[in-house]
User: Fold these one by one.
Assistant:
Number 1:
Amino acid sequence: MTMGLTVTLVVIVLIALLIFALISFYNSTIKLRNFVQNAWAQIDVQLKRRADLIPNLVETVKGYASHEKETFENVTKARSEALNAQSIEQRQQAENALSGALKSLFAVAESYPELKASENFSKLQGELAETEDKIAYSRQFYNDTTMKYNTKIQTFPGNVLAGFMGFDHIPYFEAVETSDREAVKVEF
């Protein structure tokens, strides 16, 4: 073989390896981004389930504590804002506000022993607690998946290639204020 042919073959092999590496990076990053989007969809499912439980819970509490109008309005407003949030950041803030409003609702419920004894309220309370657990798990899964994606695009060679291929940082789902980091208490 001549020297020119050997150099040409080496260059062709290197170009083929580079193209393969780029395709591999692109495909694996798309796969991770899809996992992140799926994880967000799972959070969304649980948040919608919680939002669906809230009107029933409010109506049950209203029957016992009709003079607590401001609390009911705050829960309803927070629920509406959570359902209408568009971005991840807006959704985080709205869901944290909803958690705070639910804390107020449960504080009102604690003042009514007959409400705490209500089978319907106990059932709704249990479903909400179960949903909160699912939300926590879904948030953890989302954040774990987001971490893998963000790590891939922030480490070499991903940090060089990601911008050119349109891959951007995805934010984690976090509690905004320290009071929002506390779980919604549903124990009576």
Number 2:
Amino acid sequence: MNRTPPIGNRFRIERCHRDMTTRRNFLALTGAAGLALAGCRDQAVASTPLTDVLIAETSRGLVRVTPEGEQVQGPAAVLSHDGARLAVVREKHLTLIEAPTGAEIAAVGVAAGWLPRVISPDGRACALTRTPAAVIPSGRARTPLTVVSDGRARELDLPGVIEPDAFTTDRNGLFVLDWLPAAKPDHYRVRRLDLASGTLEPLLTRNKVPVPSGAEEAMRGEGRQAVLTRSGQMLLTLYTHQPGHQHTRDLLSGRPGNAHAFVHVLNLAEGWAYCLDLPHPFGEGPPEGHAIAADTRDVAVVDSTSGRLAFANLDSLAVDRVVAAPMTSGAVASLALGADRRVIAGAGDRITVLNRDTGAVEASRSVPAPLRGMAVSRDGTRLYAGAPGWVHWFSSANGDSLGSRGIAGLTALRSAG
């Protein structure tokens, strides 16, 4: 029997003593109307039904959670970087789905054994491989790849260990990770696959010229996390634990290079890449203690171990400030950017809300269990917090903890819409 008390009772019993002293001062705004996480109440918190569609990563694969119930997409499913689209393979059919509505974008037959890996920004194309995603793939001489676009499937046979990463915005190219050495991979370079010719090409520099031979960066991918900017034009990938790494600009200039953590900026429209270095001590702590979030203007990276939050402007591609972010040290980190210049950082069983312009802490409170991902609703009025086997949500209308819902096997909350 499940003896876990309801969310309201858990807050009231377990958190009331610790939170009561800060209750009167707790009000954090995010989204159109803001986010307010309430302190303890004298009465149990009422459970408000779920009104958004959530995508959760679980032990059963991806699950689409709606007010009406759950739709298990299974292990042969992938979510787009912005959380807006799903690609699912069932019974030799690939289906592309709008995640918030469940509407079918396209469907096409595929041979048995293909697994969806990457969806195009417009949701009309998908790249599939015969091997699942892995932190470090196994060695192989060649890589079979299927690309489905506008209802047509094309198979490619590429030399070496090739892993799809992102489509270009026009769907004429596919950015891939070219792992080396092919027999026993331990590092990779990011390259562009021309889908018309089937050839691999180097990326462009920020000045839009091809990277010269010998100057392509070698990456080891530890702690990779990727987010898409809200414009859909840039893919931002966080790398940690990269001591001695040499960027293309270091290789071209002869500098030694020694970046422990950086954000790899990939322009999906123009095909150039740039590495935005993060200052010490980012990259020193556990990879899972780092998290990244972005919108149309800023990218932010948090490190729970050092309790630091870095902001960078997407136009200048440079860190412009680092502020303190009180967090549970070393815990799995989550990060979200809201409207009204608020940042929500989470680690362990605590959420902290900071003003994006000043870095000032505007609110901090406990949540019932260690966080496993956060997401702000598309209208900005609700914050969803994932926890092992559960998702909890909070209202911005009146500051209440609205309720919770069990999601069997939940390991990470991916999106809300």
